[in-house]
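Hi R.,

Here's the chain you asked about this morning:
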Amino acid sequence: MARITVLKGEAEGSIIEISEKDFKIGRDPSNDLIIKEPFVSRRHATIRYKRGKYLIIDSSINGTRIKDRPVKKKYLEDGDEIEIGGTVLKFELALQEKTPEAKEVMNESKNRLLKTGTLAAGISLIAILVISIFYFISTPSKPGIFSSQPGTGEKLPLQEKYLSDPVYHFKMGNRLYREKRIKEQNLYLSILYWKRGLELLRNTDSETYIQIEKFVDRISKELEGELKTEMFGAYQAYHLGNIKECRMHLEKILRMMPDVNNPFHKSALEKLKALK
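And the predicted structure, written out as tokens:
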């Protein structure tokens, strides 16, 4: 067994299991994965299980790319990113299909975790939470209601039945964090989800709360560091007389930090207005 995760495209975030049957991709409604893009052929590509491996076969006009190279036929490797039109798909093998080396690395990580003593007294709430997060990550989100976060202008997908479920919010935060390079605002949105999950977790095990709070603090500092880098880039470009590059840095800050009340957002907006 294997799976495809849509990293970029209309169905972004979707996870599709692949069996030993042919998995067809294209614009035609009969395909297993339908990509409605002008540069995608009706029957663009097929992933076929052959000799214990998964083979991708391109049958399109505009081509299929892996690692920025066009492919006609190629046995897929775990982690390969497949580009079809403007859509990016990640191919992953199930654990039982992975190489012995990959399994060994995963088992080693598991053993290290057990030696830390986190699970020494039995399965604690933090362990259950981590297991739950990774369970939900592997489950595609279904359409739900949308709730705007104050000051962001962004609509975050919040399924009604999960509004009071911290694990759901951690799952969404995790997904956005993994995809932080796909959209510039994803790191910020990830923090929003994690913080909301923490709010829902306040009255539970203190160790759990502290561990997750530390993680949220770390990724908040990561975002702050990236915003400072962009602001410095804008400052440097301005003093070198490169107004175009300065504007690009400032506009990127607005995308990375959509909260209009945030000091970085305010400062970037003021400087952009001064450039005009």
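The two ends are 56 Å apart (CA to CA).

Let me know if you need anything else.
M.
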